Amino acid sequence: MQDQQAVIAEAVQRLRAGRLVAFPTETVYGLGADARNPAALAAVFAAKGRPPDHPLIVHLCVESDPAAWTTDLSPTAVRLIERFWPGPLTLILKRAADVPAAVAGGQDTVGLRCPDHALAQALLREFCRSSPTDWTRGIAAPSANRFGRISPTRAEHVHQELAGQDVYVIDGGPCPIGIESTILDLSRLDQRGGRPVLLRPGSISAEALAEALGELPGSADSAAPRVSGTLAAHYAPRSPLMLVERTTLEALDDAHSAVWSYSLAPRGPRWRRAPVDAVGYARALYDSLRVLDAMGAPSILIERPPAGPEWVAVHDRLGRAETGSGT
Ligand code: TXA
Ligand code: MG
After folding, report:
1. What distance in Å separates the CA atoms of residue 215 and residue 194, rounded to the nearest whole number?
2. Which residues of 287-303 are buried (b: 16+ CB within 10 A; e: fewer)?
3. Which residue in 120, 131, 172, 211 has the most C-beta neighbors within 10 A?
């Protein structure tokens, strides 16, 4: 057992020294660095093998003032923050001039999120309170995986992904949501026809956002900022992954493939049963992809989950895992 206070103190000391700390959030584990320290940000990109033009999300604690990070905290942004923070919603806003360009991959915007996780909040709060107290601090953190690979939902996954790197890992057990935050771009509201744009679906659905916005968010177009989680190939296992229908699995005469099915009972040692509800499915998804991948099977067959609004984010991640797999 890690002693929580000692762990947070050690983590804060490292962050202040420009070093990296991986920490749990309600979605996935993040690879954190001082968001106002360009050298620490460079270390994040290096550890992940991530191209420098892919922006990072700045994580804030409940006490932080998001206005310290943006020039344009619109009434729409305030409404969404009041409704959904702390929680799995990242807002893209115009970047304030004193926020390092590196955190935004050189773009004029910044992604902000306030995680709904006790350990993440404790870390963020103590980071701000480390002397002198400064509530304008934040922790920039992408998911704590190598670029293009499966996001970590357990501390063990982070150790696997970043073995040999100078990263202090805070173990908070499995992440309760299991897939990354919903990303909503509010940076172009002041332009003609500008409206909120959904860049990445997550557990906060477009319909839930619409209740607060009064309209459904638009979908990403070519003028939208670049989001690596929206590259066609992402979240990818190494074995080739295929989404298949139940009938394909029923007819399957092959003991070699690794299989994840929510509707069929396992037949053989490489079959795993998937949860039937969207929340449980998302929570289990990345850990299961790792388990299936570790079987070293010639292929991973995943039964296509049901349609419906609560499954949108899961379909999004599975589609990208399928496209990026086998490399
Ligand atoms: O749930 C999450 O969001 C997790 C946890 C750790 O908070 N973080 C996460 O980070 O998924 P990452 O870097 O793997 O994905 C964040 C996405 C990236 O695809 C990045 O391009 C996008 O957010 N993003 C961040 N800042 C942005 C900005 N200013 N404009 C457009 N996209 C941005
Ligand atoms: Mg990621």
Report:
1. 13
2. bbbbebbebebebbbbb
3. 120
**Model pTM score:** 0.95
Task: Give the phi and the psi of residue 250 in degrees, each rounded to 5.
Answer: -60, -35
Q: In the structure, what pLDDT confidence band is assigned to residue 221 with cuts at 50, 70 and 90?
A: low
Q: Which two tokens stand for residue 303?
A: 């039964």
Pick from 55, 131, 141: nearest CA to 100: 55
Best of 109, 180, 221 for a ligand 1 pocket test (most atoms within 8 Å of beta carbon): 180
Tell me the CA–centroid distance for residue 227 and ligand 1, in Å: 7
Q: Point out the ligand nearest to the CA of residue 150.
A: 2
pLDDT tens digits, 259-270: 999 999 999 899
Q: Is the pLDDT of residue 150 over 60?
A: yes
Ligand 2 centroid to 9 CA: how many Å?
Answer: 26
Asked if the model's pLDDT at residue 231 lies above 90, the reply is no
CA distance 216 to 143: 27
Which of the ligands is closest to the CA of residue 111? Answer: 1
Q: Nearest ligand, CA of residue 227?
A: 1
Question: For the purposes of burial, counting CB atoms within 10 Å of the CB of 192, is it exposed (0-12), middle (13-18) or buried (19 or more)?
Answer: exposed
Residue 27 Cβ contacting ligand 1 at under 6 Å: yes
Q: What whole-number distance in Å separates Cα of residue 34 and Cα of residue 16?
A: 7
| Atom number, ligand 1, closest to the C-alpha of residue 90 | 3
Average of pLDDT values for 59-70? 97
Q: Which amino acid is at 153?
A: T
Residues in the chain: 327
DSSP 264-281: S---STTEEEPPSSHHHH
Q: How many CB atoms lie within 10 A of CB 67?
A: 14
Say how many Å lie between the CA of residue 71 and the centre of ligand 1: 20
Mutate to test the pocket of ligand 1, among 21, 56, 221 (most ligand atoms within 8 A of CB): 56
Does 198 sit in the ligand 1 pocket, CB within 6 Å?
no
